[in-house]
Design a protein that fits this description.
globular; 4-stranded antiparallel sheet; about 350 residues; alpha/beta
Length: about 350
């Protein structure tokens, strides 16, 4: 079972207490109705999860309790031709379409302070021998920089297994300790239960680097039940060997979890040259990041490039816009819907490519 942060529990209790005080005169003679099950899709706007924002007016979504509406929300960045982030835009600067059909924007806001849920996925397979220590150091510094009071993060290590090294926490020291646990592993494999916490993907007796399975488990088991802004950061060379799922399954899990994926490509080309192997990890990682609204940043084995890449990600995560709309296609049939946001000033939009309508997690 995933951990629930104390902050979110306190927020939920406060909201419920206030609601009871406000409504008690009207319902003093009525028995309380049992709560309805939450069938909200993670790919859609969270329908009043405690402590998360919902649309109130066009420019300032408010915190609220569950309402029966079908709202899709989309977090995205806006950049000029040189890649510089563009602030201070408003709703009228954008248009949005679903499967090619224009949609009416219900709310729009800049999201620099909304709580962030972050997953760090670190590759500890043999090809990372020369870059792993660098990843640990710079990754820990990034977490110290990015996490605020209401944010949470977890750490997953992957090689011949996928291991949850640290569950959700706001404690940077525990997250750094989890990163420090990672060690190069080029063989073996445990015989524990499949997936993280009994997930559906078996990781025992694997053949290599379970990158795609790690992304799947991070999305399906960790982030799918969370609300608000969510992102994964992968520290890897992008090479997968032995995953039970193809890259398509990893992408789908990230999209259903509404998680932006960044890949910091830490590829030690010297390793592949000395081993007589070809390198081909970049192409699949580009697909993963483009479909989920993130970016691939090639840092090689350069310490400064890795630090700069983390700085860029921090800036993007704190400079997001959020658009919400009610789709004209009201069917919640689990189908994939393509999304397209356009800037009327022809700025570059960095956003996920689509979502799954009304799906339920397995």
């Amino acid at each position: 079972m995933l951990k629930i942060s104390a902050v979110r529990l306190r927020t939920a209790i406060t909201l419920l207490a206030c609601l009871c005080l406000m409504l008690s005169p009207c319902f003093a003679q009525q028995a309380a109705a049992p709560p309805k099950p939450d069938n909200a899709s993670p790919a859609q706007a969270p329908q009043s999860q405690p402590g998360k924002t919902q649309p109130g007016d066009d420019q300032n979504p408010r915190e609220t309790l569950k309402v029966n509406v079908n709202v899709v929300q989309l977090f995205f960045n806006v950049k000029d031709k040189k890649g510089v982030l563009i602030p201070n835009l408003n709703k009228d600067d954008f248009s949005i379409a679903e499967d090619g059909r224009p949609q009416t924007i219900k709310y729009f806001t800049a999201e620099s302070n909304l709580p962030l849920t972050l997953g760090i996925l670190i590759d500890s397979s043999g090809s990372q021998q020369r870059v792993l220590d660098m990843e640990k150091e710079v990754g820990g510094a990034f977490l110290k920089q990015i996490l605020r009071n209401n944010d949470e993060a977890f750490v997953i290590g992957f090689d011949v297994d996928v291991d949850l090294l640290q569950d959700f926490t706001n404690d940077v020291h525990r997250l750094q300790a989890a990163l420090n646990k990672t060690k190069i592993n080029i063989g073996g494999g445990n015989l524990g239960p499949p997936g993280i916490g009994g997930g559906p993907i078996p990781t025992s007796n694997p053949r290599g680097t379970l990158l795609y399975d790690a992304v799947y488990l991070s999305g399906h088991d960790m982030l799918a039940k969370e609300t608000g802004r969510k992102a994964m950061i992968l520290l890897t060379d992008g090479e997968d060997q032995g995953s039970q799922l193809p890259i398509k399954g990893a992408i789908e899990a990230a999209q259903k979890a509404d998680a932006i994926v960044y890949v910091l490509l830490c590829a030690d080309r010297g390793f592949y040259g000395s081993a007589g192997m070809g390198y081909s990890g970049e192409g699949e990682m580009k697909k993963l990041t483009e479909q989920t609204g993130g970016r691939l940043i090639n840092v090689g084995n350069n310490f400064q490039k890795l630090r700069d890449a983390f700085d860029q990600i921090a800036a993007e995560l704190r400079s997001q816009y959020n658009i919400g709309y009610t789709p004209d296609n009201t069917k919640l049939d689990g189908s994939y819907r393509k999304l397209e946001i356009k800037s009327k000033q022809n700025y570059k939009i960095q956003a996920r490519a689509g979502y799954y309508a009304g799906h339920t997690q397995d």
